[in-house]
Design goal:
It is built from 15 helices and no strands. By secondary structure, it is an all-alpha fold. It is elongated.
């Protein structure tokens, strides 16, 4: 570039010099002019050299600055890359060592867990075996205690069947009340065990069932079971226990005013009415009175129809005046005139004047026409009897 400028200036100067020289034809002047131009050219070259040096310095400075910036930029990039590389390296190794440590800890933990588990299992099995042995011993002791309690209960139950002897024979007479109280003190469980054990006599099992019905709370299912078994075909219960004893058991049930007793007596009375005449004669009267007492205690009038149907089959009314009075009261309480009329017609009229008057008195309040007709019929019957005699 510099050379081009120099040559350009030189060409201009030569043009300027050559043209006048041709015009003026003056060689000397041209020579002088040339020298002058050379001098000027030399000065210009010096200035150009100075300018070139300044430009070089500026360019060098700029180059140095650019190189410095480039170096700084490359160093920063290198530093970042180095930092990133170090971070990656550090995280890689950290992850590796953490994984190794985790694996080691896991292996050690599993080994320790299996060891502890085995140790605990051995201890537990050892304790469990000891516990099982202890349970066996407890079961044996419980069985022995159960058997002992059962034998004691059987002895007390058997005592009720043994005759009392006078003191003259050396045997003190046992107080009946104390004996019954001792039976009531027996646990329900031991009494049930005796009742369910068929190796004992039926009379003994029946006594256990009777005591269960008198306990608090009462358990009447065993006694009802025996009563219903008596009605079954080919039953020999009454032969072993006795009809009187079974009737007394029905009397025991009359004092147990529970829904279970009500349902059991209702079922038993229904079977007596529909299944077996022999047993009807033996137990129906007692069952009717017992069911009436339980129904009255529970304030349950649902038994009125079956009680009314059973009235014609009541046996020996002369020996049951008080229960008949209670039965009349029960019918009156529930406004069942049909039941009162049944008692009047089948048992009171002409046989028990006191009950006859009571029935007519109650009927007079609710059905005076019936009483009037009944008395008229009775008077007519008496007149006819007198005339025939």
């Amino acid at each position: 570039m510099r050379k081009f400028i120099v040559y350009l200036l030189l060409g201009v100067l030569i043009s300027i010099v050559v043209v006048p020289s041709f015009a003026q034809q003056n060689q000397n002047a041209l020579q002088q002019e040339i020298e002058s131009l050379k001098k000027q050219l030399s000065e210009i070259q010096g200035k150009l050299q100075t300018v070139e040096n300044v430009e070089k310095m500026e360019l060098a400075a700029k180059l140095a600055e650019a190189q410095a910036k480039l170096a700084n930029a490359e160093f920063g990039k290198f530093e970042r890359e180095l930092r990133d590389y170090n971070n990656k390296w550090l995280w890689g190794w950290t992850t590796f060592f953490v994984a190794i440590v985790a694996i080691v800890i896991t292996v050690i933990g599993l080994a320790l867990w299996f060891f502890v588990k085995k140790l605990i299992a051995d201890r537990v099995e050892e304790r469990l075996n000891g516990f099982k042995d202890a349970i066996k011993q407890v079961n044996i002791l419980e069985g022995q205690i159960k058997l002992l309690n059962k034998d004691q209960a059987v002895s007390k139950l058997e005592a009720t069947f043994q005759p009392d002897f006078g003191s003259g024979l050396g045997f003190p007479r046992e107080n009946e009340a104390r004996r019954e109280k001792a039976l009531l003190e027996l646990s329900q469980k031991v009494l049930l065990d005796v009742f369910e054990d068929k190796k004992y006599l039926l009379a003994l099992r029946h006594k256990a069932a009777e005591v269960l019905a008198q306990k608090s709370p009462p358990l009447v299912a065993p006694l009802l079971q025996l009563l219903n078994s008596e009605i079954d075909v080919d039953s020999n219960i009454s032969a072993e226990i006795g009809q009187r004893t079974l009737r007394e058991s029905i009397a025991v049930l009359s004092g147990v005013e529970t829904p279970e007793t009500y349902k059991g007596l209702t079922k038993f009375l229904n079977r007596l009415l529909t299944e077996n005449l022999e047993h009807k004669d033996a137990y129906l009267t007692w069952t009717v009175f017992a069911l009436a007492y339980v129904s009255d205690g529970l304030d349950n009038r649902e038994s009125l129809p079956i009680l009314k149907n059973a009235i014609p089959f009541l046996e020996n009314p002369g020996f049951n005046r008080e229960p008949l009075k209670d039965l009349i009261k029960f019918f009156d309480k529930n406004n069942d005139l049909g039941g009162i009329k049944e008692i009047l017609n089948h048992h009171a009229a002409g046989k028990m004047p006191e009950l006859e008057e009571k029935c007519l008195e109650l009927l007079q309040k609710h059905d005076p026409d019936f009483v009037k007709e009944w008395k008229a019929e009775k008077e007519t019957a008496n007149t006819e009897n007198e005339e025939s005699s």
